[in-house]
Amino acid sequence: MSDCLFCKILAGEVPSDVVYEDEHVLAFKDIYPQAPFHVLIIPKKHISTLNDLDVNDNELAGRLFTTAKIIAQEQGFADDGYRVQMNCGEGGGQIIFHMHLHLLAGKKFSA
Ligand code: 5GP
Ligand code: ZN
Q1: Which end of the chain has fewer surrounding CB within 10 Å, N or C?
Q2: pTM for the predicted model, two decimal places
């Protein structure tokens, strides 16, 4: 996806502050953090929104969550707790149309 910002980050064409990478996912710091620690976890495969997620991508989708857990543990947030969030579509607040999970930590969130 040549016009996708996160695909450009994956290709190294746009710089990012990477905190985790494996064969399937990349995680990097959000440029406008909404919490003391805020990273975006993206699949290396371009999937625009949750609406485009196929049942064949179930393992990949699960990896987004296990990656959130791994990063939270590595960064020392697992015990205090943290928030994961995914926005779907314009109405859901999505502005970058490459599916991603937000991991927010380092403060107490309200319900
Ligand atoms: P969305 O609203 O689509 O769920 O979240 C997109 C996120 O991407 C926002 O939190 C925004 O701050 C972040 N973002 C937008 N442009 C860039 C960028 O160029 N680099 C990084 N690291 N994050 C970005
Ligand atoms: Zn993309």
Answers
A1: C
A2: 0.98
C-alpha 8 – ligand 1 centre gap (Å) = 13
- Burial readout 20-44 (b: 16 or more C-beta within 10 A, e: otherwise): beeeebbbbebeeeebebbbbbbbe
Residue type, 75: Q
The answer as to whether 71 is a domain residue is: yes
Q: Whose CA is nearest to atom 19 of ligand 1?
A: 31
Is residue 38 part of the annotated active site? The answer reads no
Per-residue confidence in pLDDT tens, the chain, 111 aa: 679 999 999 999 999 999 999 999 999 999 999 999 999 999 999 999 999 999 999 999 999 999 999 999 999 999 999 999 999 999 999 999 999 999 999 999 998
Whose tokens are 């993206």? That residue is 42
Domain that holds residue 70: 5-105
Query: How far apart are the C-alpha atoms of 45 and 107, rounded to whole Å?
Result: 31
